[in-house]
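Question: what's this shape?

___
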Amino acid sequence: MRSLSNMDFLNLWEGGAGLGPLDRGLLALGAALPDTPRDTLADWPLGLRNRSLAELQCAVFGRDLQGWVSCPRCAEKLEFQLDGGALALEKPPAGEPVEVGGHSFRLPTSRDVAGVARETDARAAAVRLIESCRVDPSGPVEWSDADIEEIGECLAAADPLAETRLTLRCAECSHEWEESLDIAGFVWQEVEARANRLLRDIHTLAAAYGWTESEVLRLSEARRGLYLDMVRA
């Protein structure tokens, strides 16, 4: 996994402006793993994708993941912090087919999730996801609620990093609930913040010295910071 340059951040921010969360996560991974085709990344099990995004987060932005959520009961805004390094060190899923009730399933991927993203009915989305991941050659199956639950549990057990659930407690009203960790969202938030800072720096130094965007970006962090301090003095 290569480090990202200042130009990478600007290109990511610009290229991902009109994309959804899934595609933004894959776009960021593609920048850090340029030798891996985008289609290949889209077919990675979700746990491998999430582990790689956590690795990218730690390598480029640091281990700490800081976020905000609102309590669903009293709407109090709560801050939480996680160690992204723990996610990056988790063992990736083996990728072996999962056998459940006489059927074989592969682990869900970003492509599978994108295929059901527009489904408004939760049960219908679950069935579509199951069918997308089913690899046995049998014909159509009428999935019961028990089938859906069992398959979901088995797939989650085979790929624990596919979804990380956080247990949170509101300091104001003591309500406890769970939230799903969106590691792709954390990474993209950092990309946007870095790109916005770079664009402000470029504007300031271009206005003061007449430098081009590429000339400003070629400056080291320390040298650019010193020039900015002198302009603002």
Observations:
- The mean pLDDT is 94.
- Residues 133 and 142 are 15 Å apart (CA to CA).
